[in-house]
Structure formats: structure tokens, C-alpha cells
Amino acid sequence: MRHSDEYITIIVDDQTVLNIKQAASAVIQGSVQAGLSISKVDQWVAVPVESALHFDDSDKQRLSHAIEEYGNPLIYGYALDDYPSIPTIISFNANYQGLDAFDRAFCHFNYALFPESMSWMLVCLLEDYYIVMGPVSFVERVLETTVENGYASFHTFAHNPGWPSITRERFLYVLQAFKEHYRMAKQGEHILL
Length: 193
Known about the structure:
The protein starts with 7 loop residues before the first strand and ends with a strand. The chain has helices spanning 14-25, 57-69, 96-106, 136-143, 147-158, 165-184, and strands spanning 8-10, 28-31, 35-39, 45-50, 74-79, 89-93, 111-114, 121-124, 129-134, 190-192. By secondary structure, the protein is α+β, with helices and mostly antiparallel strands.
């Protein structure tokens, strides 16, 4: 897959790719295909959010406003699976247009998104949810509600009677992993997704 978009930059410099991978590995390890784990970052919370192919328009609005408030004008994207058809590392502006371009180009792939400062992370998955991770103030700004209300919303989503039981169990496992295990974990402890 060759990608060309005025909003997305494919990072190809070997040293830059290595630096970004190393920064991301402080928070996320493995791949979705082989097993993904999230490391506890001190003072961070993590909330899964219902989605369909990453972000809808309201997600993009909330995310771009929250990111702008945190002063992170550039986002890096790190592919969480090894597909030769997609770039391992990309970057784009943290505004609505950049998020929209990312969504259009990479909504069928698993990516972690974060600023150079690693002050927060979004884990975009193909499993009908994404994960907002960072300080409570950032997460609540993205959610436009409290962390507890975010967990309650995902709980309602997970209990949708239309889900097959295996999907419902998967979503409830994810909720428990972040609501209970991640919050209680010590710095650097791994939570398996």
C-alpha cells in the first residue's frame, strides 16, 4: 500500500524509526497478532471507548481539542502489526484534518498514537474500541466525562444483547483489565490484552 496524503508523513529515517519504536515500547509491547501488552505508566489511567474503525466525527473533534490543550501539535503513529503494505511509523498534525486523514488511510489497521513527549497514548484497534491512556485530566477531556462514566459507558456497550457471547466476554475482559488491573498496577507492570 503506497500512501500519499498531504496530512500524513511516512517516517523512513532508520534512527527516527528506532527512536519512536523505543519510546512506544515503554508503554506498549508486542503486536495484536502475537499478543499485546500495555505497561502501567505512573499517574495514568486507561479507558476503552466504543468505536467503529477508530474515530467518528465526534471523536475527532474531542481528540483534536484535548490534544491542542495539551500542546502536542504532532502525533506519531506506530503500527501494532507487521504488515509490509503499511508504514511502521507515520506522523501527522494533531488537528481534525490530521486525525481524519489518519482514519481514512489506516482505519483497517491497529496503531498506537502518541506525541513525542509520550504524555498520553491512544491505542486504535479493529475490535470496535480504542483505548485512551494518560493523566486523568487528559483522559477526561477526551471523554468529555469522568473516568468512571467512561468505564460505565463501555460496560453498557459490552453488554449489548446483539453481541455474540464471546465478543461480550472479550469486551468485559478489556474493561476489567483497565478499570481494575491497570489502575492497581505498579509502574512498569504489564497488562495483557
